[in-house]
Design brief:
1163 residues, five-stranded antiparallel beta sheet, 61 strands
């Protein structure tokens, strides 16, 4: 979701001052930041990050008003209110310096065509010159505890228990004061009239924040209680306010509200963050989830952080940054998935193992679009870092204690239409990170030709496509191309060059096409797209057109068209535009559709566009490709309008809108492959609630004519899941993997992931009436999901990694620069298998038939054996280590399920080898006796697996049983020529005969099996005798003995191991006799060379027995056949008889030429 990158940087203050800043607050658009020190108010600009104006209070005024404490911006950025320590509110007017006055201007290369001719160049690229003018102060006669902006008013809480409502002008309309004691508080709104009420005598509000979508204030009282105050009517008066409070919480410290998800995050003195929601039925505060460090991941600091000091939601409200009293930063997703923490690993420890002091923070805020985190360290932290960096010279400007952390985020946070893509796309302030695979393995869709289709569309063979007559690749080829996403650990980094993209002051939206070869990026004005194949950007040729539009609803790709929901400044009109990728980026080549309301969200499903507008309505448009000109164009036509105003209280609550082919009657629709391509339902993420609107097919189904495009209405919405952050679905279809492709995948924060899986009857049988059509299955993963590979059954994600850069040239920790204090942060690609979780959940619910169908569809995956191992291992660990008896164990069901696959034997033994010996009895009680499994391996000629089972037997049975099974395996390995395995078996048999008693060892060796059968650990293995005290001395003697494989004849000359070797020698002699009896001299030579068998001496001993040759002709033929030698051939010219009239000619020499291949010496 969000990830730290690089090192933080320290901002320099151009003014010399002895005061350290302690408070920072951004304006509404986060372009300006108000920074407070004790008697100084400064305004900083975002890009470049420089101070543009500063107001320093006089000594006399500072004595009257007191030191500055907090600041708040007016919504239109024209004023700043500052709370002073003596109860004064100081109002400052922010005055612009005029159109031609700028403090900083960028310098570009000479000859750049996009410099000063760009409209709005000054506003976009230059830091403005501002001034601060103080107005008449307002005395509230009590210390100020909190100050918040409320549209045209300013709400101030004071330590005397009052809420003051001030107008921003401060003079003309006066002010109102509301006593907190007069506001009725109850547990819910239903009991507000007659139920228990909270006594607020002597209490005041410590911290508060206004929530627009809840229309009220979340407050933390002085005694640590949490509450929510909302007006009965639209005006804030004492008689029209009511409050609810959270029960059983008395240690609240701070609060931050999430307007998009309607959540209130309260920091507590215990170090945890309680996230509450308002029950729409009763109006009470309900605990949604907690944000807290767990002892599992942070055993050293989980209860030593101190109280929560600050909570800050990101600008898109998808993550929250938390800091504590004793320092440190931690980042969570909106529903509790933990992303980053600076209290552990390289953030907390140096390379030599010494512990660092965590960074202590007095104030922080997010920058524009969430790409930066502005942090002001505490005074002692600033002094420490200043001492570490050395005292600056007297002439050097003093450094302000402002740190700026750099972050990159997923494109899903602001452009959720990319959730149906299978690539991970991250974007930062000036660059993009994507995980697309090797372009050479992607089909021809990577070219920039106008008629280039996407691979998904080719796989479907869409009607009406101009390339429909071409041969479409099979779905297997598409899946193979998607699997290339796993073959690369590096990122493709695309730099957004500021001197070319002037309007891209900061990236707002980014989208990638289905093939992963084209990226569209939108900034404050205009947009551009980039080709991965040509490594070039395509920009607007007419800069005026670029400046006259801004993307509002997001970006998406449809085939080779960019779909843009934008606002036209010239016509003051919301528009839907489609630009052809291969054409020039110009409005003359765009398809423009006028819209009547602001577009908030955009998504594409096959040939349909879905728009969510500010009036809470959903519009469906069809797209058709046309060739009525020199360049292809797109025709957009409105199909359907769906009003959601009855169900959506505020349009800003909608996180994403998606068209899918998912429907509840999938279980009975066996002819679904062609219907799976249709848009059957709308998925709406409403503040974390996933709402489904399915087409109403309850009425009479009338066959429509081809020229009609009337669509069925939608049923009332149904809530599918809660706490949903992201949704993934696909428009592809695959008959072999319908479970995965027709499922709906959800990311639910701390709860992990969920899948809404379809259930299909087997062999076209009629489903049972009690069988549900779909089932929601939860499962946990160890990464934060950013993309789902549907056919490959994988989840892609990213994680933060750190690199230490200390201790090399700085031996003294007290003289380290800032870059050494913090580790260098990188973002690594991650992936995780989820199939075993789904199979297990199906087996738990007695849906073994569905689990078998799903597993059989994925059996061809290269990591399917690992999936089976994981499922057995997880169930075994949970059940075998459970302290309470399990009434219905799952392991026997899992074992029976795995027997349906040919890798059953390998799965069990691999899982056992990676599990503790104490759990083996439980495992084999469920899967079967290891001796029987060993014999099955021998019958199946799977000797490597049998070798692994032999290790199990050696640890569970007496040595006699191990020797018996080892002999069987040794003879089989000799017959099949498995020489590596034979050498390990010799070592194994020698180890057994060297002194093991007739009891199995109490603890096994759990080393990983080797690729040659799993006996590598016997090279240096010592055989234990007993655990009794009497056997210690003998055990020490045997510990000094190792059984390694001697080379040559050394092994056969040891007299001390004569008894141990005799048994092995007898088997080797028996096998040598067997080979010699069958005249297999080549195999005999290999046998001797591989195992060090002394062949010459053995042949001498056997010269009168098996080595005696009785049938020379048969032996000669077998020899030629064994070495593939040809027999001697007499040439035709030499076939005349040497005898004449029965007598041999005198002096005539008989010459017979024999042609044969010289023999080869076996190795």
């Amino acid at each position: 979701m969000y990830f730290l990158t690089g090192w933080p940087r320290r901002l320099l203050c151009p003014l010399k001052s002895e005061e350290e800043p302690f408070h920072i607050h951004p304006n509404s658009q986060r372009f300006y930041f108000a920074v407070l020190s004790e008697t100084q108010l400064s305004i900083w600009f975002s890009r470049p990050s420089v101070m543009i104006v500063s107001y320093i209070e006089s000594v006399k005024a500072a004595a009257q008003f007191g030191f500055y404490q907090q600041a708040e911006w007016k919504p239109d950025d024209s004023m700043i209110a500052v709370a002073a320590a003596n109860g004064y509110i100081l109002m400052f007017d922010v005055v612009g310096g005029g159109e031609d006055k700028y403090l900083y201007e960028p310098v570009y290369p000479k000859g750049s065509p996009r410099v000063k001719v760009t409209p709005g160049y000054k506003e976009e690229q230059c830091a403005p010159a501002l001034s601060l003018e103080m107005k008449r102060p307002i005395d509230l006669e009590a210390p100020i505890t909190s100050i918040k902006s409320l549209q045209e008013d300013l709400l101030v809480s004071t330590a005397d228990g009052y809420l003051h409502i001030l107008h921003w002008d401060g003079v003309s309309n006066g002010r109102k004061a509301i006593s907190l004691c007069t506001v009725p508080f109850s547990l819910d709104l239903q009991s507000a009239r007659g139920g228990p009420s909270l006594d607020l005598e002597g209490l005041y509000i410590r911290d508060m924040e206004y929530c627009v979508t809840l229309d009220g204030f979340a407050v933390v009282l002085d005694d640590g209680r949490l509450g929510f105050i909302s007006p009965v009517a639209s005006r804030f008066t004492a008689e029209q306010l009511q409050g609810v409070w959270a029960a059983d919480v008395t240690d609240g410290t701070c609060v931050a509200v999430n307007n998009k998800y309607r959540l209130m995050a309260f920091g507590c003195a215990s170090g945890s963050v309680l996230v509450y929601m308002i029950d729409t039925t009763t109006g009470s505060m309900q605990l949604s989830h907690k944000l807290e460090l767990t002892p599992k991941h942070f055993p050293d600091v989980w209860n030593k952080t101190g109280a929560v000091k600050l909570i800050r939601w990101s600008p898109d409200y998808s993550v929250a940054m938390v800091t504590w009293e004793y320092g440190g930063l931690s980042l969570w997703s909106v529903f509790g998935a933990h992303l980053i923490c600076t209290l552990g690993e390289d953030f907390a420890y140096r390379s030599d193992g010494t512990k660092k002091d965590p960074i202590k923070i007095s104030s922080m805020c997010w920058g524009a679009e969430g790409y930066h985190l502005w942090v002001i360290t505490s005074r002692e932290e600033a002094e420490l870092v200043e001492n570490m960096e050395g005292a600056p010279p007297p002439t050097q400007t003093k450094q302000a204690g402002i740190l700026q952390f750099h972050l990159i985020k997923s494109a899903l946070t602001v452009n959720p239409c990319t959730s149906n893509q299978e690539q991970v796309l991250l974007h930062g302030e000036d660059r993009l990170y994507l995980t697309c695979g090797d372009p050479t393995q992607v089909p021809s869709s990577s070219s920039d030709g106008p008629n280039t289709p996407h691979p998904h569309n080719l796989a479907h063979g869409l009607e009406g496509s101009p390339l429909h007559h071409r041969s479409a690749p099979s779905p297997n080829s598409i899946s193979q191309g998607l699997s290339t996403l796993l073959g690369h650990k590096h990122w493709h980094v695309v730099q957004v060059q500021p001197h070319k993209l002037h309007s891209f002051r900061i990236q707002k939206f980014a989208a990638i096409d289905t093939a992963g070869q084209c990226i569209a990026v939108a900034g404050r004005r205009g947009f551009a797209h980039y080709s991965m194949s040509t490594r070039k950007w395509k920009l607007f040729g007419n800069i005026t057109q670029e400046q006259n539009m801004t993307v509002t609803g997001g970006l998406a790709w449809w085939n080779d068209f960019v779909v843009v929901a934008c606002y036209n400044f010239t016509d003051r009109q919301e528009e839907l535009r489609l630009y052809l990728r291969s054409s020039n980026l110009d409005n003359a080549f765009a398809s423009v559709t006028k819209l009547h309301s602001d577009t908030l969200l955009l998504n594409v499903f096959r040939d349909l566009i879905v728009l969510f507008r500010a009036d809470c309505s959903i519009f469906l448009y069809s797209i058709e490709r046309r060739h009525d000109g020199p360049n292809p164009s797109a025709c957009v036509e409105l199909l359907q309008e769906v009003s959601m105003s009855r169900y959506i209280p505020h349009p800003a609550l909608v996180v994403s809108v998606t068209l899918t082919s998912v429907r509840t009657e999938t279980g009975i629709a066996l002819k679904a492959p062609q219907q799976a391509c249709m848009a059957e339902s709308i998925m709406l993420n409403l503040a974390g609630q996933l709402i489904m609107l399915q087409r109403d097919r309850s009425g009479p189904q009338v066959r429509e004519k081809e020229d009609q495009k009337k669509l069925l209405p939608f049923c009332p919405p149904v809530v599918l899941a809660q706490c949903v952050e992201n949704v993934w679905t696909t428009c592809r279809s695959n008959k072999k993997k319908r479970h995965l492709l027709e499922a709906l995948w959800l990311s639910c924060g701390e709860a992990g992931m969920k899948v809404w899986l379809p259930l299909f009857p087997r062999d076209h049988r009629k489903p049972h009436s009690f069988l549900s059509r779909r089932i929601m299955l939860p499962f946990h993963i160890n990464i934060y999901p950013l993309a789902v590979l549907f056919e490959d059954a994988l989840v892609l994600g990213a994680s933060n990694e750190t690199v230490l850069y200390d201790g090399l040239q700085f031996s003294n920790h007290c003289l380290c620069p800032l870059e050494v204090t913090f580790p260098y942060c990188t973002v690594e690609r991650t992936s995780q298998i989820y199939l075993h979780h789904i199979l297990r959940q199906l087996l738990v619910r007695n849906l073994g038939e569905q689990a078998l169908l799903l597993a059989q569809s994925c059996a061809a995956l290269p990591y399917f054996p690992h999936v089976m191992e994981l499922m057995v291992h997880v169930v075994l660990e949970e059940e075998a280590t459970s302290r309470e008896p399990i009434p219905d164990p799952l392991l026997p069901t899992v074992a029976k399920f795995i027997t349906e696959f040919p890798l059953f034997l390998q799965t069990i033994v691999h899982c056992a080898r990676k599990t503790e010996y104490a759990l083996w009895n439980y495992l084999f009680a469920a899967v079967g006796n290891p001796k029987d499994l060993f014999e099955e391996c021998l019958m199946a000629q799977d000797l490597d697996t049998a070798a692994s089972y032999l290790i199990i037997l050696q640890n569970m049975e007496v040595p006699a049983v191990s020797r018996q099974h080892a002999t069987l395996l040794f003879n089989t390995a000799l017959e099949q020529g498995k020489w590596d395995l034979c050498r390990h078996m010799i070592r194994f048999l020698k180890a057994i005969g060297s002194g093991e008693m007739e009891t199995p060892p109490p603890t096994p060796t759990t080393q990983e099996p080797s690729s040659t059968g799993g006996f590598e650990f016997f090279r240096n293995r010592s055989i234990s005798l007993s655990q009794s005290a009497d056997g210690i001395a003998a055990g020490k003697f045997n510990l000094q003995k190792t059984f390694s494989m001697p080379s040559g004849s050394e092994r056969w000359s040891k007299d001390s191991d004569c008894a141990e070797n005799m048994y092995i020698d007898m088997m080797l002699w028996r096998h040598a006799r067997h080979l010699l009896e069958q005249v297999r001299l080549k195999d005999l030579g290999c046998f001797s060379a591989q195992l060090g068998f002394e062949l010459i001496g053995w042949l001498c001993r056997e010269r009168t027995r098996v080595a005696r040759l009785d049938d020379f002709v048969m032996a000669l033929k077998c020899l030629h056949k064994d070495f593939l030698w040809p027999f001697p051939v007499i040439p035709a010219c030499s076939t005349s008889s040497p005898f004449k009239d029965g007598h041999r000619k005198t002096g005539e020499v008989l010459s017979i030429k024999c042609y044969f291949t010289p023999p080869t010496i076996p190795t």
